[in-house]
Amino acid sequence: MITNIKSHLLNHKVKPSLQRMAIMRYLMENKTHPTADEIYLALHPVIPTLSKTTVYNTLKLLVEHGAVLNLSVDEKNARYDGVTKDHAHFKCLTCGAILDIGVRPSEAIYVKNIGDLKITEAQLMYKGYCSNCKNQQPQ
After folding, report:
1. For the chain, percent of residues with pLDDT exceeding 70
2. Own/partner pairs for 38-42, CB < 8 Å, 24+ apart?
3. So what's the pLDDT on residue 77?
4. How do beta strands 79-81 and 69-71 pair?
5. How far is it, in rounded angstroms, from Cα 84 to Cα 82?
6. Domain region containing 23
């Protein structure tokens, strides 16, 4: 886990502001892969001047600078991950939880080039039932 949020932002060439540091801290402390709206709802009571636009713009900036991942695991909403190291995700088909799992996409099916295409990003997603929901499934 990132221990110094300010240094993390500076290392990614993002000027640290109160709002940016709060959003980054939230992502690092909450491994739920939240949406922008979830981040806003969590932080607005603590930072009343925070707007939804600021949250969306900050997330866009953090993604562009590689400080945060934008996950394409939810068909309806963009979700964000403060962990940028190579890892896979798991989505529960019952409760919708999105979890980090210890499989690296580079250990699975991952190529750098296909024909004349250059691959720059891969997201590995598993779907199934989490430990809480799997016992509720018919055998």
Report:
1. 81
2. 39/80
3. 82
4. antiparallel
5. 6
6. 5-81
